[in-house]
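One chain is below:
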Amino acid sequence: MMRKKIIPSLLLLSILFGQKSDPRTVALAGATTTIADGIYAVGYNPALIAYQREKPFMMQVGGFDLGLNNNYISMARLNFLSGDTLDSAEKTAILNRLENNGGLSFKMSGQAALPAINFASGNMAITSNLMYFSSYTMPAGMARLILEGNANNPNIDMTFNYEIMAVNETSFSFAVPFDSYALGISIKSLQGLLYMGIDPDSSKADFITTPFAVHGSGRYYIRSGVGGKGWGLDLGVATKEINGMRFGVSLINAFGVIKWNEPSFIKDVLAGKDKKFGNSDDVWHFKWGGKALSDSVAAVYTYNIDSLRADNLSSRTIFSSNSDVVYNLDENGKPKPFNIRYPAIFRMGASFKKDALLVSTDITTGFENRLYANSRWRWAIGAELYRYPVMPLRLGFAWEGMDRTELGMGIGFHGGPVMIDLGFSFKSGMWVHTMKGFNFSLGFTMTDFKGRKAKEGKDSSGPSPPLENSNDEASQDLEGSLSNENQEQDTPDKE
């Protein structure tokens, strides 16, 4: 029987520092493919830039977004598993859930808008955001070994997955409106800041048991990079609002790739006095086994368990491991660059607006399970209430399977040119005790000083009425002129 004290320790692993996010999107659980406005249309559907409200100038003064999530641990589940030991039914429930989800995974995402760089005007927008992603997955085989031992598990997969990446994403977006629809595109410059991850194609680990012994081996090939360059595209189409309804489709981060270990200003900033990155005098660098990781090397960790038996438990040669660096050079002796795909997201949605209520729904999916992307289909629906235009209220719900739900809520303050928005969502759960993570987002935006309210349309069929003061002055002048003419007519001719 395994003591349940290991469960809280696993929870601590989830407290570390996805997709582009903002307060309104978080509050609506992501249902913004047809309603994102201005600079916030970038990353969701660039075609919406053609339909900015009154086409105001829009600038993001600041913003912050933080997301934490795991696929199993919640306060309710910890309470359910509370006690000294786990019985067989509880063990089976844990293992089934972990194996169905590919192991115990933890994810974190962070985003910070660069002040005064994100702005939009007319049908164009320029945005720049600092983004951070990390993911860690403990294999389900590790949990099975801990909970059940090796007796009934002859071959256990022990391959871990780990990946972190920081990118500065700069986009130039524009949209072209037509009679009934608009097309939009975002051209993205991806400035890779840092990357470290286990190469899944070159890494493998297992734990093999026999009736008389246990043995295993593993090799993890870890690639790292500081300074990378790449490009990406966002493509989108959105209809005009017809009877309050709008439809849209977009492909986000299409063909996005970052090429690492390239010359970059990041290396120049971090390099030491010798102006070469990857030496001990650097301001900062990745380390492995006490050695600085440069562009020309990669990290390798290997272990070997040699026939663990009852009669040799005291032997020092049973378990051996080695941490080392290997050269990563081409035939010309130059560092081999490696490419990391920037995961793409497909989105389609619809929205309906009537009076002070806006309802939006989205269906999205990724094409791989990496970083912020997931290959499962996700449905989201959100509502925004403008009964008080100065303070919009938002509520959203998303479903990605019974184990991956999301409840979002938020509020805004829109007074004149100032827009302050706050969003919060419960990840993989509907409240505090059931959630397995959260997303918090806060944003500050400035628009033109005329505000964001719709202007009263002027009647263009005729001239504007004269001003009241001007009308009075004109009447006085006219009366004076008529009086003078009458006086001239009534005056007798002296001759």
Summary: Confidence is low (pLDDT under 50) at residues 1-18, 454-475, 485-489, 491-495. The longest strand covers residues 214-239.
